[in-house]
Amino acid sequence: SLSLSLSLSLSHLKINIQFNHHKMLSECVQQNGGASTHRSRHKSYCLNSRLKFTMLCPLFIIITIICFLFDLVQLPGASAFNHSERIQLRSEAKQMFYHAYHSYINTYPADEILPISCRGRFRQADDSSDIDDSIGNFSLTLVDSLDMLVMMGDIDEFQVSIKKIIKDLNFNMDITVSVFETNIRMLGGLLSAHVLAKAVQNPRDKSIRYLNETVRNQMSWYNSELLDLAEDLGRRLLPAFDTKTGIPHSRVNLKHGLESNDLRSALETCTACAGSLILEFATLSRLTGDGIFEEKARGALDALWKHRHRSTDLVGTVINIDTGDWVRRESGVGAGSDSYYEYLLKAYILLGDPTYLHRFNRHYSSVMRYISRGPFLIDVHMHRPNRIAKGFMDALSAFWPGLQVLKGDLKAAISTHAMFNEVIRRHTYLPEAFTTDLQVYWANHQMRPEFLESTFFLHRATREDYYLDTGKEILRKLQDLKVGCGFAGLKDVRTGVHDDKMASFVLAETLKYLYLLFSEDNETHVDLDKFIFSTEGHLLPIDLALIGPSPKDTTQGLVLDVDKSSKQKNTKRDTGPTDKLVKLVPWHEKDSEDQTKVRKEALIRLDKKTGQFSLAHSTKQQIPAAVAKLLMKMSDNFNQEKAVINLNDYENSCPSLEVQEMRFDGNYHPFLNKRIKPPTTTTSLTELYFAIGIKVFYSMSH
């Protein structure tokens, strides 16, 4: 559309302006000495350089606008993407996956495959030079890729692979692994595959209807073996949390825990390593009924939040797990921090606890204030955020536009995504790191998924063909990396020399997002609306909140102080998402001006396909029948075509109920594929927004 084309044009314009500005100032410093040692001597020269740039800027802008107006008619987003071409590209992405997958299977039970030499890659315990925390002789690539098989509808191979894992996988090994990598790849892979296996087993069960109608009843033999393996693995990771702060060690031995002095004395971990456990650990707790996993992961997040810089709400990248002191104080959204932010927002979506949303919003505001500089994301010092900590960005930060889509900040997402696309245009592949003038800083390319992930989410949010064309270009470039036994990355994007390595995330994420980008909703065999993607691209069902609350009932409404967690212990959890309506809505009390009334709230979610509102949490209290009646009436009357709720319909629907307000978040949510419009009338329901769910505040007479 014209609006997207204009946004992209402005983004490219901003990138080129900042590129020339950085280049001019860099030349100024190089020609006249470092700014710190020659500050006063050459201050006037640099100011003159800035002035010259400012004078030239209008001319540059005019020329650039003319160029972009000329290019506008050629923008991929300006023309319709051919339907048959989309089908062909989806087929190509599928073939690419199978080329890599079958090549790996020939080396099973290896963790990964070396795509050029066609050999399996194992963890060599007796080789001190082979230090790779992500592999552990547990068939990593196979576990990491399981849910992709279901997405493509290959249930037969899905069953064969699960039987291999059940037969061969054993975590009782004297091997030290990364807690973070093992969690997101292995634990996440097992949990996602288990959820999908149960759905394949009972595709017509309304409580777990995660699959499209094309999937038939299969896998009657499956008896939750993957969940048993996940629980075994989870318990082997728990010793890592034996620290003074609750922030886990970065590494743990699968058999001996922290018995090694080397492991116990390693007191540093990255923010993302400690803060990216809650999705998988909470899922494990909800599915097994043992709250210890969620409690530990939540404790780690609480500790990171506690040790943030209170004035800036920024966090560093490396922290001491015993003292809580920051070891590396640069703050950014790339390596070391990336998925910490991601998991705060997604924990709210998955679990419904607004504490996570509150913390994410605080961090997000700080990132956009201090770290975001136009389309660039530049690390700053957490205590002095006006000081730049490093002058380059890494490829991992390409996930940020996708997270911005989930947040609803679409304009910023488009701008930053366009910047990454410009880097790729200049260098053919996204280098591992690049400078603010878009030059190569670290030259290797590992076929990381983050840029494709953001491309997928932006296309899902905008439905613009520009992002399909972007994906097409990436697909063609990945095809050029095809070798005999998979796809090989590059040692240097400038020379094109291959690297004999293909990480498990190439199958688990890169090729998955490429396949999904060219797939319509009914072509994925999985109802994506009912899942959240983990940072490794694994599917976790968003109705987990129906199974039970957190082990510590810290959920509080947005009208309360979400930082002051309740210490009230839970009663026994509900057994599943099939409980009656009145048992599934949480409510909270707060004194209103009228002391004869009490203020409560209910959180519900909208199913975009049926137009029905479902309840987002389980609780030991029962919602009043009047509120249940109101929610059911809302579902019956919801205008699905216009996506509008007429608030007047509910003025007198429940005589004993006074609805004070209903909150939606006006930002676009990608899994709804539409924007919820504001009401057409002004009523006593003072606010209407749409976010992950709908929050109804009400009061009842005592």
TrEMBL record:
Cofactor list: Ca(2+)
Pfam families: Glyco_hydro_47
Entry EC number(s): 3.2.1.-
GO MF: calcium ion binding; mannosyl-oligosaccharide 1,2-alpha-mannosidase activity
Gene3D superfamilies reported in the protein's UniProt record: 1.50.10.10
Membrane-crossing segments per the record: 53-73
Record's keyword terms, sorted: Calcium, Endoplasmic reticulum, Glycoprotein, Glycosidase, Hydrolase, Membrane, Metal-binding, Transmembrane, Transmembrane helix
Highest taxon listed in the record's lineage: Eukaryota
Positions that bind Ca(2+): T535
Entry-linked InterPro entries: 6hp_glycosidase-like_sf, EDEM1/2/3, Glyco_hydro_47, Seven-hairpin_glycosidases
PANTHER family: ER DEGRADATION-ENHANCING ALPHA-MANNOSIDASE-LIKE PROTEIN 2, ER DEGRADATION-ENHANCING ALPHA-MANNOSIDASE-LIKE PROTEIN 3
Protein name: alpha-1,2-Mannosidase
Organism the protein comes from: Aceria tosichella
Top-level taxonomy: Eukaryota, Metazoa, Ecdysozoa, Arthropoda, Chelicerata
Gene: edem3_1
